[in-house]
Structures are given as C-alpha cells and as structure tokens.
Amino acid sequence: MIPVQFYLVISTLLFFIGVFGFIARKNLIGLLMSIELILNAVNINFVAFNRYLFPNQLEGYVYSLFVIVVAAAETAVAIAIIMNVYRRMGSETVKSINELKN
Fold first, then answer.
1. Which residues of 10-33 are buried (b: 16+ CB within 10 A; e: fewer)?
2. Which of 1, 17, 30, 59 has CA 20 to 30 A from 95's CA?
3. Exposed/middle/buried for 67, CB within 10 Å: 0-12, 13-18, 19+?
4. What domains does the chain contain, in order, with CATH numbers?
5. 97 contacts 85 by C-beta, under 8 angstroms
6. pLDDT tens by residue, the chain, 102 residues
7. pTM greater than 0.90 (yes/no)
8. How is residue 26 annotated by DSSP?
9. Which residues of 76-90 are buried (b: 16+ CB within 10 A; e: fewer)?
10. Distance from C-alpha of 80 to C-alpha of 67, rounded to nearest angstrom
11. What is the DSSP string of 31-100?
C-alpha cells in the first residue's frame, strides 16, 4: 500500500504548479488549464484522505466527482467567454479583457 504522504506530495506539486501558472500566464486558455490543475490537486486530496481515513465510505469519491462535474461546466462557460472575447478583440490575453471593460 502506498503511503498517504506520496499522494499529498503529488497533490501539493500539482497545486503549486497550478498557482504559478495562474499567476504567470497571460493567455486565458493557460489560466483555465492552471485552474484545472488546482482542481485536480483537490481531487487527489479528497480521494487520498477518504481512502486512508474512511476506507469503507465513499464521501471523498463523491466529492471528487462533484468537483469534476463543476469543473466541466466551468470549462464550458469559460471557453465560450474566451471565444467571445477573441471574436471581439482578436486576442485571448488578460489585457484584452481589461480593454473590453473600458
């Protein structure tokens, strides 16, 4: 059996790679991918803690499925917004969103 520390290390790495990508990227698709990495890190934590703390229950798996469903809906809406911004501004960067506000 793999120790829970390995799952937590992988989850922490994914989380901080996602945070770094969210801070460093200027492209909206890159920001969306970074958010997905953060959500996947949370899913790994849910499943790992469920397996090691409550092995006969399914709450962690249900929460992770709920997060996956919400992430899919969020991705669909975000891609629609990004496509609309690209059509209006000709660019998909964060700067074009700021120009769209003004």
1. ebeebbeebeebbeebeebebbbe
2. 17
3. middle
4. 4-101 (1.10.287.3510)
5. yes
6. 889 999 999 999 999 999 999 999 889 899 999 999 999 999 999 999 999 999 899 999 999 999 999 999 999 999 998 898 888 888 878 777 777 766
7. no
8. -
9. eebeeebeebeeeee
10. 20
11. HHHHHHHHHHHHHHHHHHHHHHH-TT--HHHHHHHHHHHHHHHHHHHHHHHHHHHHHHHS--BHHHHHHH
Query: Residue 54: CB partners within 8 Å, gap ≥ 6?
Result: 60
Digit-coded pLDDT (tens) for 40-58? 999 999 999 999 999 899 9
